[in-house]
Prior knowledge:
Oligomer: single chain
Largest sheet: 7 strands, mixed
Structural class: mainly beta
Strand content: over 45%
Shape: globular
Helix content: under 10%
Distance between the termini: 37 Å
Number of helices: 0
Number of strands: 11
Order of helices and strands: EEEEEEEEEEE
Amino acid sequence: VQLQASGGGLVQPGGSLRLSCAVRGNFFGVYDMAWYRQFPEKQRELVASINNGHNGGDKKYGDFAKGRFTVSRDNAENTMYLQMNSLKPEDTAVYYCNAEVRPPDGLVRNYWGQGTQVTVSS
Length: 122
């Protein structure tokens, strides 16, 4: 099982980016998914999470993300997205995706993607 994150880059303040996280490999199910971010020499913090419930899943956001970021998922494609609008320089960080996945051995495990750099700067 691998989580492939993409979509980071350099954007000006006030701009937008859309991150993607695709779950690839052999597995039986994908459950809770989340985006975290990490600043240099800091612990990772939750950006947004989404479960695999009905109507697009239940979503939670870090306070800094509310009103600016939107998490969504496409269960048919096993992919999660993070639409980030009104980006600020303080959003500059490495963004990681995380997912609970059931591989063929049946035990649900927690997986991390490789991280994608988001830089907000003029």
